Amino acid sequence: MRRLHEQQIVEIHLEIDDPAITCRVASVTGAVATLIRQDQGAEKLPPAATGHLVFEHQGTLVALRGIAASLSEGEPKIEFVVIDNVVLPERRAAERIPLAATVRLWTEGAEETAFETVTADVSISGALVERRLGMPIEELGMELRFGGGVAPITCRAQQVRETPTHVGIKFVEMPPADRARLAGIIFRYQRASLTPRSPSGLVTARR
After folding, report:
1. Which domains does the chain have, with CATH numbers?
2. Which of 23, 40, 60, 192 could lock 35 by a disulfide, CB 3.0 to 4.6 Å apart?
3. Model-level pTM?
4. Cα 176 from chain centre
5. Which residues contact 54 (CB under 8 A, 6 or more apart)?
6. Degrees to nearest 5, angle at CA 133 with 185 and 130
7. Among 47, 43, 88, 98, which Cα is nearest to 65's?
8. CA-CA distances (angstroms) from residue 173 to 11, 93, 177?
9. Dist. CA 48–CA 199, nearest whole Å
């Protein structure tokens, strides 16, 4: 919990697989984080809802398992009590995942002439994108679209390596809210990949 700080934006992912709950950290005392919901007016959480508190810390995805509870009816405050330590091994927390997203890249002041490409993989700190003819090599404006009605994630992109077919980019100047959402997207993908599957290949529900 020492990785959290006041006003940091985080997400709660309940085990019932409801949409992520975006919150801002109000305070941290021991294993308890008091959070302020950003979607004020939403329904109260179910009693003793188990889930994960997901956030980014120094370029690493952190997911803490615990119990979330609304403090009172109509209040936007949630208490999250951690019951397990970091649930993603360090290798998984930092690894790139084969997640496809549409990418728009543009030079300063020239968004109307943006290049469009797709990701080969994504991590909390960067991505590998397919190379496009004429793609600029300087620091660029960037927009990531994951589809499914998810709002685009915006930041600036620095090229860090290249191959004949792909370009590696580092995310810089990403707004805290977008960084929290990206951490949540990656966590959901990793959680799904760890869920037991039936012989037919379908994901089975945990009991």
Report:
1. 9-93 (2.30.110.70), 102-174 (2.40.10.220)
2. 23
3. 0.74
4. 11
5. 10, 11, 12, 13, 20, 61, 62, 63, 64, 180, 183, 184, 187
6. 25
7. 88
8. 20, 21, 12
9. 32
- 172 forms beta bridges with 156
Q: pLDDT digit string (tens) for 142-189? A: 999 987 777 899 999 999 988 989 999 999 999 999 999 999 888 888
Structure tokens that stand for 45 in this block = 């959480």
Tally of CA atoms within 13 A in the half-sphere of 136 that contains its CB: 18
Residue 73's pLDDT band (boundaries 50, 70, 90)? low
Strands (DSSP E) contained in 58-139 are: 60-70, 77-86, 102-106, 115-122, 126-130
pLDDT tens digits, 10-56: 999 998 767 889 999 999 998 899 999 988 766 778 777 899 999 98
